[in-house]
Amino acid sequence: MQCVVKEKPQVKFEPATSSAQQIGIMGGTFNPVHLAHLVMAEQVRKQLHLDEIWFIPNNTPPHKQLAGNVSAKDRCAMLELATHDNPYFHVKLFEVMRGGTSYTVDTLRYLKKRAPRNQYYLIMGSDEVNDFENWREPETIALLSTLVGVRRPNYPQNPRFPMIWVDAPNLDISSSLIRKNVATGNSIRYLVPESVRLYIESRGLYRD
Description:
Elements: E1 22-28, H1 35-48, E2 52-57, H2 72-83, E3 89-91, H3 94-98, H4 104-114, E4 119-125, H5 126-131, H6 138-144, E5 146-150, E6 164-166, H7 175-183, H8 194-203
Parallel strand pairs: 1-2, 1-4, 2-3, 4-5, 5-6
Helix pairs in contact: 2-8, 4-6
């Protein structure tokens, strides 16, 4: 499965729809996507009875530098590989195609304009919950979406905004751990989907 990102992308608008769906939003750099992302998304989908989960990779993240010198094309290709066998998971390139710095509030405004009847559930890990008030326009985000926090054992959670909490298996996996393991020659088998591991190996990603 291929993920095509043009050199000079134009925003690709989704057709407007009057149907109402319950959509979970998983945003991030996905650099790379790993099993903890997928487990979190599936647990939220099942427990909240959502229709779909949309994985929306950042173009340029606002709060951190994109590590690993990996292209947007590679990141979204790995997402496609990781999610293609789950009919409820979909990769959406709104932020990559828009270009520039990716802000969640801009994406939610776009989505609500195109499909105002949809209900969006913004899925966050515990670390994101605690940093949420530092995001651009958190009050607006909380109005445009339902905030969903995924609990992490022994991690303090003190959100200022109303939030639905979901429990999920605690997989101590991070994208930085994946990159470090690849760079040092350690195994990432069973930390990422096998298709993603093979893609990283074939493309020589994260070796430097």
